[in-house]
Write a structure and sequence with these properties.
Blueprint: E1 6-9, H1 13-26, H2 34-41, E2 46-51, E3 54-68, E4 71-83, H3 92-106, E5 111-114, H4 119-123, E6 128-139, E7 152-154, H5 160-171, E8 177-178, H6 181-188, E9 197-201, E10 209-218, E11 221-231, H7 234-245, E12 253-258, E13 274-285, H8 288-294, E14 303-310, E15 319-326, E16 329-334, E17 340-343, H9 344-352, H10 357-362, E18 366-368, H11 370-379
Parallel strand pairs: 4-5, 11-12, 14-17
Antiparallel strand pairs: 1-2, 2-3, 3-4, 3-8, 5-13, 6-12, 6-13, 7-9, 9-10, 10-11, 14-15, 15-16, 17-18
Bound molecules: coenzyme A.
Length: 391
């Protein structure tokens, strides 16, 4: 760990001001905009890196949950990693990331996730690609779904029912968040000069989904941006599409955030939905044992995987572990034969199922016996991991 930097919470008004200025400059915010950010995420969740008395940069930790195999795993999201330009290139960001990983371990957090502007920095702190977050776009004229099995009702503001419906969807999708309050606020509270519309699919009597969106105009034409959506039934998915298609006289296209193989697109008559971007967020296994024990697994699987993990940052993650999976849960004990050798980074895409063990072996991320490969393939098989939020 680089000794010349010190890591701490933000302590005084002067520190808040300086961190605010750094983050505003780093992320092209307007002057004063960092205050909204601080309020939304809570000032106590920000950390700074100092060189002597001087603040060189900071980041935000967002404590939430992430769904894996139908279980909620406590997860800390890392956001707003920013270093003042005059301190860049001297290891400040890496030192800060190493400190935060150690802090999360000490607090008992099993996993952490983030959106990287550069992978190289975060890989050095043990993060690796974990799942997708894709922006999809489809011209409203090409939706052509006419079935509208459910009524759609206008619901002003965020409603508790949205949280409940979302939670049902999240539980069934690997990687979705149990959102922090600040993320919910961002969905429902509009930016300046923006209106947010919220509709319950199936209305209050038989809610089966919802859609929250804003409307935009730019050089490509007018569009609807889904700020959030949930569909729990086929009827809700059909209704969502026909509802959006009915905007086609004024709205040219719709954009939404979905998985790499978004099943909403399967309801469309032609392949007119395109991925505008396909980002991969990164995951760090902070605590090998608790990360493997807290997640869920397929009910029918009974298997044992002997791991040998190497982690240069968290000493306790090093060594051999046996993961025994039965009845949808995993139990971890130390020891075993170490039949699958991997670095802590390689464990991330294995854990999330972003890549199969074969793919990871080919990419040089793990080395394993045939027995271990077959066990890992069964244990970590699942839907393509994704996330509906950006932070
Ligand atoms: C990205 C940022 C945080 C890096 O800060 P930094 O203090 O210069 O980073 P470090 O000196 O600790 O670099 C650690 C490693 O990451 C690499 N790295 C840092 N920034 C990089 C970049 N933009 N592209 C590629 N690699 C980068 C460094 O080369 C170094 O690896 P090395 O030792 O092998 O050379 C800083 O440039 C910044 O604040 N940028 C603006 C805001 C931003 O984009 N934040 C990231 C949000 S996810």
């Amino acid at each position: 760990m680089t000794p010349k930097f010190e890591y701490s919470q933000v302590v005084n008004q002067e520190g808040i001001q300086r961190l605010g200025n750094i983050l505003e400059q780093c992320f092209l915010m307007s002057p004063g905009e960092s205050e909204i950010f601080f309020n939304r995420l809570g000032l106590e969740n920000f950390r700074i890196i100092r060189q002597g008395e001087q603040i060189a940069g900071g980041l935000a930790t967002i404590s939430m949950g992430q769904w894996w195999g139908g279980q909620r795993v406590p997860m800390t999201g890392i956001a707003a990693v920013g270093i003042a330009p005059e301190y860049r290139g001297s290891g400040a960001a890496l030192a800060m990331m190493q400190h935060v990983v150690k802090e999360l371990y000490a607090k008992g957090v099993p996993i952490s996730a983030l959106y990287p502007a550069t992978q190289r920095l975060y890989r050095k702190a043990g993060y690796e690609q974990g799942g997708f977050s894709c922006i999809w776009e489809v011209p409203t004229e090409s939706i052509l779904v006419k079935e509208k099995p459910l009524p759609v009702c206008d619901v002003p503001g965020t409603h508790e029912i949205f949280h409940q419906l979302y939670q049902h969807q999240a539980k069934l999708n690997n990687g979705l968040l149990d959102r922090h309050q600040g993320l919910w606020q961002r969905i429902s509270r509009p930016d300046e000069n923006e209106a947010v519309y919220a509709y319950l699919i199936g209305c209050a009597d038989q809610p089966q989904g919802y859609i929250i969106f804003s409307q935009h105009q730019n050089q490509d034409g007018s569009s609807i941006r889904l700020r959030d959506w949930t569909v729990l039934t086929t009827a809700a998915a059909q209704t969502l599409w026909s509802f959006i298609a009915n905007h086609r006289s004024q709205i040219k296209y719709v954009r939404w955030r979905g998985s790499g193989n978004d099943s909403l697109t399967l309801l469309l008559p032609e392949q007119t939905a395109k991925q505008k971007s396909a980002m991969r967020w990164m995951l760090r296994v902070i605590n090998v044992s608790t990360a493997l024990e807290k997640r869920g697994y397929s009910q029918g699987i009974q298997a044992e995987l002997h791991l040998e993990v190497q982690d240069d940052l968290v000493a306790e993650n090093n060594g051999r572990f046996i993961l025994s999976v039965a009845n949808g849960r995993g139990e971890v004990t130390s020891g075993g034969k170490g039949e699958m050798k991997l670095d802590i980074r390689g464990l991330a895409p294995l854990y999330t199922g972003l890549f199969t063990p074969q793919q990871l072996q080919l990419a040089g991320q793990l080395d394993a016996t045939e027995t271990a490969m077959s066990a890992a393939t069964q244990i970590f098989a699942g839907g393509s991991p994704w996330m509906a939020d950006f932070f």
